[in-house]
Design brief:
- By secondary structure, the chain is α+β, with helices and mostly antiparallel strands.
- It has one domain: Aminopeptidase, CATH 3.40.630.
- The chain is built from 5 helices and 7 strands.
- β3 and β4 form a beta hairpin.
- α1 runs antiparallel to α2.
- It starts with a strand and ends with a strand.
Length: about 150
């Protein structure tokens, strides 16, 4: 398994991996479609980053985005691991890639929005130093948990 920066060849996998997990738990929303259909314009060209996880054979099995925030921090977004790859520590590796990149760039914090029903994800976030924040505005109807960690 390897984690590497997003390349144009990853566009379909970025969309498909995220569409699969979101649709299995929630309704795909307009903002999701915007970000999934245009990762370059919505994330990369705005100072963000995307990491893709692949098998040694090059099959995409996970991904995560870092959306640049106005304070120099990043929002962790669209993190998922394919069903067949879950339970092997890939989510932790993807989050560590986010932390490492944010630290290298001097970002003050990582922020994320999630849902209380995603217990395994919440456990990972808390284990990696994220703490709960008060509710705030979000473009996603499904979000009911807000978290951040200092970098």
């Amino acid at each position: 398994m390897r984690i590497l920066p997003f390349e144009p060849r990853h566009a379909d996998a970025w969309r498909d991996l995220n569409t699969a997990w979101i649709s299995s738990h929630f309704t795909l929303e307009a903002k999701d479609i915007e970000v999934l259909d245009d990762p370059r314009g919505q994330i990369l060209d705005k100072g963000g980053h995307i990491f893709m996880a692949e098998t040694d054979e090059g099959e995409p099995i996970g991904c995560v985005g870092l959306i640049a925030l106005s304070d120099g921090g990043f929002e962790v977004a669209k993190m998922t691991v394919s069903e067949q790859a879950r339970g092997a520590g890939l989510g932790k590796a993807l989050m560590q890639a986010c932390i490492d990149r944010a630290r290298a760039l001097g970002a003050p914090r990582l922020y994320l929005e999630t849902n209380a029903s995603l217990a395994p994800a919440l456990g990972l976030y808390r284990a990696m130093g994220f703490v709960d924040l008060p509710a705030r505005d979000t473009p996603y109807a499904r979000c009911n948990v807000w978290m951040e960690r200092k970098v």
